[in-house]
């Protein structure tokens, strides 16, 4: 499919042919949901921790004899039901990450790109460059373009002045093509790709 290419002044700068097998797939909410769960699970620290019976302070000695006291039998003061005892079945340090087939992950990224294209929220720009580091100037350009909530993806590297100018803007994320992922694409309203980003993504996903 052929789409228009614009520049940061919101003027047409040609057009580009997008691959149908990357930007023209049917929407699949189930794939996107699986991929987002996969990404968020891998991001979890999993550092929550309690102390079990073996770790709490205290003796393992029997508090009182088994028989003849009229009280319920007890094994040790560190048992979970005792005051100051260990916690039973509490959280321990672990990884929350789970597996997802590589083909499914690849298809989910294609689907996310295709969804943005189908919704009319995919914008292709010729290049992302700035003469000076001016966040206020960049904010004005983004407002004129309607990029209130945007993920901006460039090629292998992002131009330094542009990155420094745009990185502090609220609801604007900057990524290179190698870092493009389903979660970041879906969490922002507009997806902005440079021509080099389109080439990199098509080479990565074909």
Keywords:
206 residues; Ribosomal_uL4_dom_sf; 6-stranded mixed beta sheet; alpha/beta; elongated; Ribosomal_uL4; rRNA binding; rRNA-binding; 6 strands; Large ribosomal subunit protein uL4
Task: Describe the fold and architecture.
This protein has helices at about 20-25, 30-45, 100-120, 135-145, 160-165, 180-185, 195-205, and strands at about 1-5, 10-15, 120-125, 150-155, 170-175, 190-195. The protein has a 6-stranded mixed sheet. It is α/β, with parallel strands linked by helices and about 210 residues long. The protein folds into 2 domains: about 1-45 and about 95-205, 3-Layer(aba) Sandwich (Ribosomal Protein L4, Chain: A); about 50-90, no CATH class. The radius of gyration is 27 Å and the shape is elongated. Helices cover about 35% and strands about 15% of the residues. Helix 2 (about 30-45) packs across helix 3 (about 100-120) and helix 4 (about 135-145) packs across helix 5 (about 160-165). It contains 7 helices and 6 strands, in the order E-E-H-H-H-E-H-E-H-E-H-E-H.
Write the topology of this structure.
Blueprint: E1 2-6, E2 12-17, H1 20-23, H2 29-43, H3 102-118, E3 122-125, H4 135-145, E4 150-154, H5 160-166, E5 172-176, H6 182-187, E6 190-194, H7 195-205
Parallel strand pairs: 1-3, 3-6, 4-5, 4-6
Antiparallel strand pairs: 1-2
Function: Forms part of the polypeptide exit tunnel.
GO cellular component, one term: ribosome
Keywords: Ribonucleoprotein, Ribosomal protein, RNA-binding, rRNA-binding
Proportion of residues in extended strands: 5-15%
- What is the topology, as strand order, of the major beta sheet? 2-1-3-6-4-5
- Counting helices, strands and paired strands, the structural category is alpha/beta
| CATH class categorisation of the largest domain | Alpha Beta
> What proportion of the residues is helical, as a percent range?
25-40%
Which term fits the overall shape?
Answer: elongated
Name of the CATH superfamily of the largest domain: Ribosomal protein L4/L1
Largest sheet: 6 strands, mixed
Rg over CA atoms: 27 Å
The helix/strand order is EEHHHEHEHEHEH
Distance between the termini: 16 Å
Mean pLDDT over the residues: 94
């Amino acid at each position: 499919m052929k789409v228009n290419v614009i520049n940061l002044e919101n003027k047409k700068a040609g057009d580009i042919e997008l691959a149908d097998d990357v930007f023209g797939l049917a929407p699949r909410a189930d794939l996107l949901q699986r991929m987002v769960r996969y990404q968020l699970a891998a991001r979890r620290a999993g550092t929550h921790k309690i102390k079990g019976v073996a770790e709490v302070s205290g003796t393992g000695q029997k508090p009182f004899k088994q028989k003849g006291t009229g009280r319920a039998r007890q094994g040790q003061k560190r048992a979970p039901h005792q005051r100051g005892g260990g916690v039973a079945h509490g959280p321990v340090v672990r990884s929350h990450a789970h597996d997802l087939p590589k083909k499914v992950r690849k298809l989910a990224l294609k689907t996310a790109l295709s969804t943005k294209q189908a919704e009319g929220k995919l914008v292709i720009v010729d290049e992302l460059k700035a003469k000076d580091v001016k966040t206020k100037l960049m904010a004005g350009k983004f407002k004129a373009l309607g990029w209130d909530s945007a993920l901006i993806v460039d090629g292998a590297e992002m131009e330094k002045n542009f990155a420094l100018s745009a990185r502090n803007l609220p609801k604007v994320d900057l990524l290179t093509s190698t870092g493009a992922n389903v979660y970041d694409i879906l969490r922002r309203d507009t997806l902005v790709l440079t021509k080099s980003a389109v080439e990199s993504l098509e080479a990565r996903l074909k």
